[in-house]
Amino acid sequence: QVQLVESGGGSVQSGGSLRLSCAISGYGHNYYHMGWFRQAPGKEREGVAAIDSDGTTRYAYSVKGRFTISQDNGNNTLYLQMFSLKPEDTAMYYCAADDRRWSMIFWLSPGTYSRWGQGTQVTVSS
């Protein structure tokens, strides 16, 4: 019944920008943590950015200063604004959510999250 749906992916040139969104429907309300993850072919899924219900954020070092995560609590929507995109950012991007409370050390760990979207592809060309 719970569904997370990402949108906003696409193909851009190096230095470009994209904004991803993730809408939660069904029983997916009042999640304490939400986050964005990405996975490139042949690589492990890695945490990109996370936010809790208080608005506290955490970012991977590789994207800090370029990406911004935000939450529209009223609409149950998660956003990832991406600037200065690099070819290394090319990956399938997934949004995720969890209704449990976790220490910040776990916020960028995939195992923290119980609900996942289907992913949206981001491709950055040089």
Question: Mind sketching the topology for me?
Answer:
Elements: E1 3-7, E2 10-13, E3 18-25, E4 33-39, E5 46-52, E6 57-59, E7 67-72, E8 77-82, E9 91-98, E10 115-116, E11 120-125
Structure notes:
Helices cover 0% and strands 49% of the residues. It has 126 residues and is mainly β. Strands 2, 4, 5, 6, 9, 10 and 11 form a seven-stranded mixed beta sheet that branches. A four-stranded antiparallel beta sheet has the order 1-3-8-7, with no helix packed on it. It is globular, with a radius of gyration of 13 Å. The protein starts with a strand and ends with a strand. The mean pLDDT is 93.
Main pleated sheet? 7 strands, mixed
CA-CA gap between termini: 40 Å
Mean pLDDT: 93
Percent of residues in helices: under 10%
Strand percent estimate: over 45%
Classify the secondary structure makeup into a structural class: mainly beta
Helix-strand pattern: EEEEEEEEEEE
- Write down the overall geometry: globular
Number of helical regions: 0
Which ranges are low-confidence, i.e. pLDDT below 50, for 5 or more consecutive residues?
A: none
Number of DSSP strands?
Answer: 11
Rounded to an integer in angstroms, the radius of gyration calculated over CA atoms is 13 Å
